[in-house]
Amino acid sequence: MKNAELLKRKNAATPRGVGVMCEFYAERAENAEIWDIEGNRYIDFASGIAVCNTGHRHPHINAAIQNQLDSFVHTAYQVVPYEGYVALAEKVNALVPGDFDKKTAFFTTGVEAVENAIKIARYATQRPHIISFNNAFHGRTLLGITLTAKVNPYKKGFGPLAPNVYHAPFPNEQQGVSLEDAKRQLLSLLNVSVDPQQVAAIIIEPVQGEGGFNVCPPEFMTFLRELCDQHGMLLIADEVQTGFGRTGKLFAMEHYDVAADITTMAKSLAGGMPLSGICGRAEVLDAPLPGGLGGTYAGHPLAVASALAVIDVIENEKLLEKGAALGDKLKATLNDLRAEVPFISEVRGLGAMVAVEFRCPETGAAQADFVKKVQQYALSKGLILLTCGPEGNVIRFLFPLTISEELFDEALAILREALLA
């Protein structure tokens, strides 16, 4: 089988709305490497969009899944429960930031966690409205794209969108929004457009993912916490992409002095298995009636077993420390290239959640074409890179935290070559 043959079959059999970046097809993967069906090898700096923090096919995780497979595959937790779900909830309750009693529920996808967080916030507060932020990404369901702040391709043609959702500017100096601008405009929104006493929750990514790996300033997160406390609103931290070690902490909110009332998680939670969750204040999570939460596959036994193993791997292999060190090395490499690559306007991120933005130094214009060229050149040399940002001018790095130093250095050499080509 050749990649070109499979590409033709894909185009004939699947809809164009499912966008696919690469034109080659995976045959196998190991840790931070992927081989296609023609035997070509690629260094994976995408990790399935931040899913494989613990690498592809980690032996401890594989063994946990196999062990569960030998017992049972599916009962539906809501019909016949199992100990793994409870054990994972106990672990997550202990690990999520916040000095208060917590409870956790599991689902299947990141946007499913987000939607359930919104449902719970509305039920617990008996308020209808939600505030999200510009350049946010919260998923592709109807409520997900309403919370997401990007029209093309996420909202375009899919309206009418869900009601009672408002957007406020996210502090981002690269886009001309200062910290004080963001504060002032959020207060203006609450004065002009929506009564804060009718707002159930503010949802925010501590580090925006699709929006460009923009790190929320600590002062702004504290401001949001104080605003929520003042008006009885809940603060939801969307940690779907930031969670489970990506930022040098298990959760990105550990970088802040305040805690969210509800935390969403998915992606690297289960090391490649489909699992998501929400963890929050016990009294808030307990608000909905029995049956108001759940799903047929929610908290699937194989995914739960995988997630328990993921937590072991992160702890035993000290992946938080390793990820932070690799992130520092990557940022140092990119900063060293500034003199040779004048389009580099900012290198940013927390831990191993690193991005580099490209703008013209004279005009400030976004350099999306340059980013595409770098991405394509790197791919031709065997390095998979992802882009992001509302203007498509950001490269984000999501390498597995388990990557070897030798392979990481090989990837950095390819990246340097691509930037200078």
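[next item in queue]
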Amino acid sequence: MDIEINTVGEIQVITLTGEIDANTAPQVQQKVLPLAIPESKILLNLTQVSYMSSAGLRMLLSLYRQTNNKASSLVLVGLADEIRRTMAITGFLNFFTTCDTLESGLQVLR
């Protein structure tokens, strides 16, 4: 799992590359959750994530709770079709703002 964190204006852009599973989800959570400070803007770029296990979904839910509790904004970008279907079936998709492209995700957060 490769985790790249950049700042675009006031938006934290986190680009994940690889698979998010029981082995990598704790690493992602450790790097990403501290960014969920009050009124933060976080864009999670998942265009290079091909697989997400239930551990990855739990990590997303934790991130959602952190940002929601701190009046922060969170946008998920580039969900693979399989991940989007899984999130839709489990009801997780209802919690998140999603965009297809990085630019559209940045626009939503601006």
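[queue empty]
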